[in-house]
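Exercise: predict the fold of this chain.
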Amino acid sequence: MKKLLLILLAFVITTTVFAQKERKFVREGNAFYNDGLKDTTKLDTITFGKAEVAYRRALEIKPEDFHWQFNLANSIYKQNKGEQAATEYEKLAEKATEPAEKSMVYHNLGNSLLAQKKFDPSIDAYKKALRITPNDPETKYNLAYAMKMKKKDKEQKDKDKDKDKDKDKDKDKKDQNKDQDKKDQNKDKKDQNKDQQQQQQPQQNKISKQSAEQMLQALENDEKQTQEKVKKAQALKAERTKVEKNW
């Protein structure tokens, strides 16, 4: 009986020591988390990182504690780790049994998804939270904000799409102009070559001055020879005529 009592007493002492350590880590985590919230002008990721470490130490002692898991997810979210935080909130949404707790988880899940610009999933998360707590003003506001951002994002994408279309049209127009310019250049080149050929043709028929003078001299010589032949022929004829007359 004394031995059993000693074992039970040792178990109580051990449990008490672990509980004290757990509370110590939770207090540290809460302190770091609150310090990170003090300066609203910036996001103190270092302080929230320390809070995350403290909550993880508490969970090593009490792994299934919902509240410490929820605080851990919040500290991760505050470090701009939206995707990792969303994973933690999704796990908690399956574990949560109390309506108020489930609503808080869906609200924060919506925030982490919205931070990643995942508009449809964030809107869905806010709606799930409002089905549980319909009059929550913060969730209503966040839902409206998410819907507004989704609309704005769609409008921007449509504008970008129109710009891309205009760019493609301008590119096609430039390509067409470029092709036309190329055609015009080729046409001008052909016309230029034609003109050059036409200019070269008379030049080919043109003779040098020396050749012309030689040809002219030859013609004159031929003409002189012809005239001399004609004179001789006339003189011979005249002689014959005189002879005949004298006959």
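Check your answer against the key: The chain has eight helices and no strands.
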